[in-house]
Amino acid sequence: MQYNTQREHLVMPEYGRGIQNMVDLAVSLPDREARQQCANTIISIMSRIQPENIDTADYELRLWNHLAKISRYKLDIDYPVEIIPEHEALEHPKPLPYPMQKMRRRHYGHLVESALKYAQTLPEGEERTALVGMVANQMKQNLFVWNRDSMDENLVMQDIERYSDGKLQLSPDFRFASVGIPSNAQLANNSSSKNRKRKR
């Protein structure tokens, strides 16, 4: 008995060993016309293996490029579409640079700091008050996710003042939004209110 681990490596396992064997056979055919006919048949079979992608715009282009890749770019035929060169197809994408930015409190994140900096540029008024309130609620949520035992609304208020060097403060009538997993009582209230709406 021969195990798959003992067989030749599959270039694209999603098409199976049957397609790999057909492509290998097509590559070995000495007659170009026979290779072309064999390739057309293989493409037809490949399209039946992955029918869910048939409506995509580049479906045929991808199939022929997959065929070239499975043949290890050795199949000498007249491709009806442009084939991506081997060195481009096998080239690994360059890693994206990770934006390393210094943050005072990592659990709040860079966006919170940026929002507070932006809030300082706004004139005093409703827009600035609303933005600081939204940021405060987000900071409370971040604290809950980071460590719910350390979540403290007073700490959020102090951190807002620290970030802004005392320029930003929550309004005296500000009320924090609730965070975390809803209680059983809250879930029961929500379901009963939905049922009342349905009855209406």
Describe the structure.
The structure is a single chain. The protein has 200 residues and is mainly α. It has two domains: 4-89; 94-181, no CATH class. The protein is built from eight helices and no strands. The protein has helices at residues 16-28, 32-49, 59-70, 86-89, 110-121, 126-146, 153-163, 184-199. Helix 1 packs antiparallel against helix 2, helix 5 (110-121) packs antiparallel against helix 6 (126-146) and helix 6 crosses helix 7. The protein is elongated and about 85 Å long. The mean pLDDT is 82.
Q: What fraction of residues sit in β-strands? A: under 5%
Quote the distance from N terminus to C terminus.
69 Å
Number of helices: 8
Uncertain spans: none
The Cα radius of gyration reads 31 Å
The structural class is mainly alpha
| Mean pLDDT over all positions | 82
In the residues, how many domains can be counted?
A: 2
Summarize the structure.
It contains eight helices and no strands.
Secondary-structure topology with pairs:
Elements: H1 16-28, H2 32-49, H3 59-70, H4 86-89, H5 110-121, H6 126-146, H7 153-163, H8 184-199
Helix pairs in contact: 1-2, 5-6, 6-7
Fill in the keyword field for this structure:
200 residues, mainly alpha, 2 domains, 8 helices, 54% helix
